[in-house]
Amino acid sequence: MQRFISIGDAYSLTEAEKERVKAVARARTTSNRGAGVNDAGIGPSSGVSKDMIGCGAEFAFAHLIQSNFDETIEPRSVARGEDEGDTAYRGIKIDVKGTHYPNGKLVVAPWHQGRDQGTIYALMIMTDRTPTFVFKGFALPNFVYQFPSDLGHGPTFAVPQERLAEWWHLDAFNPRCQEHEIIVCLDCSDPHFG
Q1: For 27, what's the count of Cα atoms within 13 Å in the CB-facing half-sphere?
Q2: pLDDT digit string (tens) for 77-106?
Q3: How far is CA 187 from the centre of its chain?
Q4: What is the secondary structure of 85-101 as a DSSP string?
Q5: pTM score, two decimals?
Q6: Are 133 and 61 in contact, with CB atoms under 8 Å apart?
Q7: CB 31 within 8 Å of CB 74
Q8: For residue 175, which of 96, 105, 94 has the smallest C-alpha distance?
Q9: Measured between alpha carbons, how far is residue 179 from residues 2, 74, 131, 168, 192 in Å?
Q10: Is 120 exposed, middle or buried (0-12, 13-18, 19+ CB in 10 A)?
Q11: Can you give the residue ranges of every domain in the chain?
Q12: How far apart are CA 83 and CA 88, in angstroms?
């Protein structure tokens, strides 16, 4: 049974988990470059470094909600509809974003717009070299796209941490359970968006 996650929940990777995350991150970077996928990340970090933070964020989030870490290596294209998110939370796919900046924003690349229906974004911040990751909140796509930005690497969308929501506050963005006709039904294992 998955558990609820709250802003501020944190998870520190063990040494074994850190090595597992590094291996997946390196393999993803190699696979992406080998398939001709450009490093389209937003920011100055190298592909491997970004992939390690991203994989670590995904692993920590999955652990916090008691879900499986997706160790898929093959490139998945948002444009071709191949990206099913990083994990699922109460039946809804989650795209986990990670950063090492303490005041980092939930950053979503512009090519996701219009291709992320049914996705919820989550932000994890890596706080130290352990590494420890802290959950900072959720946002739905229609909310994310209200925050156009340019962080020095071209147009993107960037939601400040203080604008992210707890799971039970997502009713402000109007996800609805069709069966029970209430906002974010906690009894429903597969809530739907209205």
Answers
A1: 11
A2: 555 566 667 787 767 888 999 999 999 999
A3: 24
A4: -SEEETTEEEEEEEES-
A5: 0.79
A6: yes
A7: yes
A8: 94
A9: 21, 36, 41, 18, 8
A10: buried
A11: 10-165
A12: 12
